[in-house]
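ingest -> validate -> predict -> emit
validate: passed (alphabet ok, no gaps, 483 aa)
predict: started
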Amino acid sequence: MKVLVLNPASSSFPNVVRDQIFGCWCKGKEIGGMQMPPLSMLYVATALQNAGHDVVFIDGAAERERFFTLLGNGCDAEVIIASTSTMTVNEDAQSLEKICNSSFRARPIGMVFGTHPTFLPRETLTRPGIDIAILGDPEDIVVDLLNEMSLVGESWKSVQGIAFRDNGGVVVNNARPIDRNLDRLPYPNRSLLPDHDYFNPVVKHYPYTVAITSRGCSGKCIFCTVPRLYPNIIQVRTTESVLGELDLILDQGYQEVFFRDETFTLFKKRNETLCKEIIHRSWKISWICNGRLTGIDKPMLALMQEAGCHMIKFGVESGDQGILDAMKKGTTLEDIRRIFRWCNELGLDTHAHVMLGNVGETRETIERTIEFVKELNPSNAAFGILTPYPGSELFDRVAQIRPEINDGSQCDLKILHTANFFNETFTHVDPDELEEWMKIAYRRFYWRPSYLLKALSRISSFGELRRAIKAGITTLDFSIRGG
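emit:
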C-alpha cells in the first residue's frame, strides 16, 4: 500500500517536540526553541518499508511549507499515519481531514497513534479526520493492519490493538500484548529525514540525532503515562543492538546522539559494557541521556563521561519532599542533591526538569522548589505547569471530581505546561497565579550573574555560542511574556 507517514506541523508553534509517544511533549519558548527529529515516526516508516509498503515520510515541523501545501493539495496515499497526543489531537485531526478532503484520488484512511488514542480511543474517533486509532506501541500493529488491508475483505477489523468506527459506532479491539524483545525493531531509517538543522541548545556537536535503548520505567509517578502504557514492563535493547546502531549513526555522519529513554541510567550493567566498548573502539561521539535519580553512582557517571556523555537530564519535579511523596516520585531531596553534586564535581552538565502546580502545591512549596533548583546549580532548568494527561493516575483522580476533563478538546498546545489545566482540583494555588509563578521561576534561575558566568564558561566553540545566544533570547522572552 502507498502510505504517508506524517509528523504534523502546528500552526501556532514552529517547534513541537513529539519524538516519542509517551510522556509530555514540549513546545515553543519554554524549551529555548528546541527541535527533535520525530523518532517514533521513523520507526513506523521503517517498519512499513521493511514490510514492502510504499512509504513517503514528511516531517511537517521541519518542512512547514511542504506541510501546508499538503493541506491544500492533498496526497495520493491510501493511508496517512500520524503521531498525536492530548495537546495536539484537535489540530492533528483537522489537518488529516483537510489532507483527506483535498486528495485527488480516493479518500485516504487517517490513522493516529500515541497516548491519547491509546487511553481515549472512543473520544479520539469523534473527530472526522481520524478513522483508526492505534493503541500502544505502533510498529507491529501498523504492519499487521496494512498487510491485512492489502487483502480483499475486512480481515483488518480483527487486528489487535486498534479502534475504528463501524456502522455508526466505535469498535475497540483487545490490546496487542507487548513484545519485550526491543531488539526486534529495525534501526530507524534516518535517510528519510529532511535536510534540516534540528536546533537544540544543549547539543554540542552537529549534526545530531536521537535514539532509544529502552521503553518503560520502573517509576510509578502519578503524573506520567508510562506506568500504564508499559504496565510493569521494561523493554531494553542489548548492548550489541545499541552498538550496531551507533556504528551506523557514525557512518551516516552524525556526531552526537540524544538517548530519549525515560531512564537510560537504569540499566547499569548494560551501560557499563556499552561505555567500555565505546571507549575501546575510540569512537568520537558525544551524547546526552535522561537519568533516574536513584540507582546511579559517581563511578558510573565518570565512566559515562569518559565514553562521551556530556549532559544528563533529570526529572527533579519539586523541591518539597511532601510533594515528591504525594506524586510517588520515589526519590528524596538528598538523592537529588547527591547526584547533582557528583555531576558538578565531574564537570558533567545537567538539566533539571521541574514542575509547578503539583499535588498539594502552595506558594511556599513553589518558593522552596525555586530555591532548591538554584541550590542544585544545574547547567539548565525547565519549569512547566503540571498537566494531567489521559493514562496517568492523576488524570483519573481529576476525572472523578471534574469529569469534563475527559473531553480532550479542552487541552491544546496554547496552554500546555504554561497555564492552569484543572490544577485547582489538587493544589492550593490560585489558578491565575501559576503562569506568573512559572515566569518568576525562570527569572530567578536564569537571571543570576553566577548562572550567566557559569553558562559562558562552558562555551567552547562559536557554534555553541550562537546556539546559546538564540536559546537565551528565547528563554529571556519567555521569562517576561510567557508562552
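The first strand starts at residue 2 and ends at 7.
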